[in-house]
Task: structure prediction
Amino acid sequence: MNKEKLIQYLDEIADQIDQVALEIWHNPELSGQEKESADLLRRVLREHGFSIREVGEGLEHAFIGEYGSGSPVIAVLGEYDALPGLSQQLDTRQNPVVKNGAGHACGHNLLGAGALGAALAIKKYLAETGKAGTVRFYGCPEEELLVGKVKMIKAGAFAGCDLALSWHPMNVNATLEKAFLANNSIKFTFHGISAHAAQSPESGRSALDAVELMNVGANYLREHIIDEARVHYTITNAGGSPNIIPEEAESWYYIRAPHRKDVESITQRLLKIAQGAALMTETTVEHTVLGGCYHLLPNKVLSDLTYKNMTELSPPSYDPEELEFAKALQESLDPDMVQGEIKKFMPEGDSQPYVHQGVLDQEQAKSVVVSGSSDSGDVSWIMPMNLFLTASWPLGVPAHSWQATAASGASLGTKSALYASKILTGIMYDLLGDNSLVEAAQKEFEERTQNAKYVSPLAD
Result:
């Protein structure tokens, strides 16, 4: 079976890939609650002859679907968690299915289905050719909390893998060597003394005052950290009734930066600010690290192989109805933001500047900024890994928006997932046929990590 016939097989099972993507889209589940989505993927893999292995306690919605034997052992990463407050119908105006409900505004319904399709195709290839090699589909929960894969690594779920492959829905078709900001997620809880706010305020010590003072300190800290770093927060507990001085208050912080060492350095400064806020208010403070993650470690061997396979394939084409849908979503956004992306990524004078078609060359792809965080970055620090994007949403549509939810449930999204399946399949086909590619990727990984070993951000 050659690569062309294997890609054709994906067209034959395209309806099944679409069905999985849409079933997960119609039943969005938040991080840590992805039972139905995980069970759906488990069931489809079992039906295609995969063995299913669970990961362990506390990771009920994580699993490994495996087929084949021998080396190389290739991990394909799948995700399926949704986001709170981003429920949306297939509509070009904001129209939630459930008010304040969950929605797939990051396209993880597509991510999981696209990865699944590639795993099914390679299973067929291994079964028909008898070739040595193992494909593992990794069902990865809690990505939106940036901790699922970090937990899985700590549980030993990736032991025995030679390399990992990943993709993500976005606005363009491109392979990336640089992506993600490293991150820490920390909650700060202040404890004070409650008292009547009018009768005896001198008796109280406000935990809310401490939270607010810490936030002020954090805002001043921003001036004195590197430009690429981000510090943002919410107040998750501000006390109760205004006539009672709050005995307890809590804030939740994300600290992000391009490298893990920068996150750790900024975190230490933020801890001092929290202690200072407690000192000023005569309260006490404790902090809980909810999680943390790494930035993407580049692997040029896999990046080049990914680009090769992207350019070997034809990106999706779109009918007039799909382009009109994309145009209407663009019109719901700031026109300057939309035009900025069109000018950046589309040829001048393009007749349909709605959905990116073609593949960005590797030099142009360097202008694509992925400044969010992902626990996929941690996987890249324990084995060689790639990352590529496919155009799942119209140009100008930001991730974590209702427009992204709408596009992820439309044919714009499902076509991009099938395209991603084909790219992943082509990469695996090449890796299984040429072990020198695996060896080169591993050699590069070892060189890059020689003096920078992975240390889990999670406490024991």
In short: The mean pLDDT is 96. The domain at 3-180+298-448 is CATH 3.40.630.10 (Aminopeptidase). The longest strand covers residues 182-191.
